[in-house]
Amino acid sequence: MKVKLLQIALITFVTGGLCFVQAQQSTIKEDFKPSTVNQPGQEYPMVNSQGYARFKIIAPAADSVRVSLGLGGRGGTKLSKAADGSWMGTTDGPMDEGFHYYNVNIDGGKFNDPGTLNFYGSVRWESGIEIPAHDQDFYALKNVPHGQVQQVLFPSPSTGTSRRAFVYTPPGYEKGKDKYPVLYLQHGWGEDETAWSNQGHANLIMDNLIADGKIKPFLIVMTYGMTNEVKFGKIREFSIVPFQTVLVDELIPYIDANFRTLATKDKRAMAGLSMGGMETKQITLNKPEVFSYYGLLSGGLYTPADIKDKSKVKHIFLSCGSKERPEGVQKAGEELKAAGINVTTYISEGTAHEFQTWRRSLYQMAPLLFK
Predict the structure, then answer these.
(1) Positive or negative, the Cα torsion across 265, 200, 137, 10?
(2) Which of 66, 218, 301, 304 could join 181 via S-S bond, C-beta 3.0 to 4.6 A?
C-alpha cells in the first residue's frame, strides 16, 4: 500500500558540505532577504523564513547554469535564463539551518558566486550561504565586550618553515595579567585554520558565553592540521605524526612562551570537527600527558579500551548532528560513563555534517572545560 500523505518529505542528503530537505509544500513564502554573508551591497543569494535559497547569476552567454548541491553531479538547483541574460532559481526545498558551502556550474565549469563572500572549504575558496537558524542568538554579533583573534607565525623546524595559527584571546586580555587555560581547536578535511573563526564564529560564541557568565575565559588556538595533504577518499592513509610534532613540540611551546597561559595538562584541551576530531583522538591518546579535556565533534568516538589511565582524563565531549549517526555517539557515551569516565554527549537536532552542528557543539562543550 502506497501512502502519499506526507506533507513534508522525504529525502535528506548531505554532500559537499551542503544539506537540504526536499519538500512538498504548497507555497514558498516571498519574504526573501539577502544572505548575511553576501558581498557588500549584493542582493543575491537570498534566503527566506522557511529556509529556501534563491540564486541569481549574471551569465548572458551561458547555455547552462546550476548551483551545486551535491557531489558527482547529483542534486543541484538548475537556474533558468531571463530576458536580461541573468539566471535565477530557487532550491527545491528548505535547507538545514546554518552555514553551507556551494559553487556555481556554468557550462560545465566550476565558479564561485560573485554575490557572496568566500570561505575555505573543499580544499578551495568556496561561496557560502547562511540559512537563518532559530537558535542563532548564541553566535550573533552583540553589544558585549569582544575578544580578539590574532594571527601568529610560529617557527616549525620539523617542516622547515614558519607556520600560521590564529589565537582567540578573551575580552580584557591585553590589559590584564591573568593566565588562562587553552583549547586547541581543529578544523576538518578541506578546511584550514580560518574555518573556526569565519564559518564557525568561535570568537563570537566565546564572547557571548563570557558575557552571559556561563564560562570562565580561556584562549582558543586554531592552526592548519595538514589534513589536506591526503585526497578525499584516502583518509586512512593520513599519518598523524607530522602534525603531532608541529602541534605538541612546536606550537604549544610557542603559545606558552608568548601568551599568558596556564601551561599544565589540566588547563589544556584539544577538540576538532570531522577529520580534526580524528586528529584529536589520535593525539590525545598518543600524548595523554599533554591534554586533559578531549572533544570529538562529528569526528569519531572513544571507547573505554582507548583510555589506558582514566585518571588522566578530566572530561570527554562527543557530539554529532541528528542526521549523522547519533546512536553511535549515545552508545559510546553510555559505555564510557559505565567505565567511570567523565563524558558528555550532545546531538544537534535537525543538522548533519555541517557547521551548525559544530557551532552548537562548541557552545555546549565550552562550559564543561577546565572545571
Answers:
(1) negative
(2) 218
CATH number of 12-132: 2.60.40.10
Q: Tell me the three state secondary structure of residue 229.
A: helix
Task: List the chain domain ranges.
Answer: 12-132, 138-368
- Range with lowest mean pLDDT among 8-17, 212-221, 256-265, 338-347: 8-17
Three-class SS state of 31: coil
Rounded Cα distance between 53 and 50, Å, is: 9
Which residues 6+ apart lie within 8 Å of 49 measured at CB?
Answer: 29, 31, 132
Would you call 170 exposed, middle or buried from its count of C-beta atoms within 10 A (0-12, 13-18, 19+)? Answer: buried
pLDDT (tens digit, 9 = 90+) per residue, 162-190?
999 999 999 999 999 999 999 999 999 99
Residue of 181, 174, 262, 191 whose CA lies nearest to 226: 191
* Euclidean distance between CA atoms 185 and 210, whole angstroms: 18
Query: Distance between CA 34 and CA 47 in Å, rounded?
Result: 6
- The pLDDT of residue 345 is above 80: yes
**C-alpha torsion 259→265→267→270, nearest 10:** 90
Residue 41's pLDDT is 96
CATH of domain 138-368: 3.40.50.1820
For 145, residues 6+ apart whose C-beta sits below 8 A from its C-beta are: 171, 172, 207, 210, 211
